Amino acid sequence: MKRDFLSDPHAAKEEIRRSIRTELRAMSLAFHAEASLVICELAAQLPAFIQADCVALFAPLPSEPDIHPLIEEVWAHRKRVVLPRMIREDSHPRLEWRVITDWGEVIEPGPFGLREPDPLLCPLIDPRELGCIFVPGMAFDHEGFRLGRGGGYYDCFLGQSPSTLPRFGLMFSCQQLPKVPREPHDQALPCVITEDGLYRFENGSGGL
Predict the structure, then answer these.
(1) Which range (13-17, 28-32, 56-60, 172-176) has the least confidence?
(2) Is residue 167 part of a domain?
(3) How many domains does the chain have?
(4) Is residue 150 one of the residues assigned to a domain?
(5) Is 205 within a domain?
(6) Mapped to the 3 state alphabet, what secondary structure does the chain carry?
(7) Residue 4 in this model has a pLDDT that exceeds 70
(8) Which of 59, 122, 150, 166 has the fewest C-beta atoms under 10 angstroms from its C-beta?
């Protein structure tokens, strides 16, 4: 029997995640490396990135854009790099941000197999110090709505952040869909960067 995805967005999201994972696994290593470098170069040219003293990034999974060069660029300009730790308290997801100065400090295994900053080595910062934030994702659509991995951590953080905080998705072009299934807590992004360029959307807040 055919599923009614309109009435069951959770099921629709899971099916999309499976499909996107298949596409990402089929991506060649050469294309992944080349596309990742283009994404990093585009991100480094953003005015919000250039002006920020504190840049929120993430330790990429193998299927995500390799943003190690972008993080190295932040360090090269003596800016602060902060990475998230995923905390779940009383079933409520939240992100805390910690400053990293070396890849050896990113060792903690977190949810979804993500690498996280070691809380014993990396100082905690107030999210109000963030100058801009780069967000991973499984998919995005033509209105800027993003599909994550299902934990709700980024949606919760973005929903509570000032609308003036510049925020950008970093994904591959194959992750763009006509429409991502939406639930009330889902947050739209104003911009997503892929190897094909910068996409801007009207639904999101906190752009360039």
Answers:
(1) 13-17
(2) yes
(3) 1
(4) yes
(5) no
(6) CCCCCCCCHHHHHHHHHHHHHHHHHHCCHHHHHHHHHHHHHHHHCCHHHHHCCEEECCCCCCCCCCCHHHHHHHHHCCCEEEEEEEEEECCEEEEEEEEECCHHHEEEECHHHCEEECCCCCCEECHHHCCEEEECCCEEECCCEEECCCCCHHHHHHHHCCCCCCEEEECCHHHEECCCCCCCCCCECCEEEECCEEEECCCCCCCC
(7) no
(8) 150
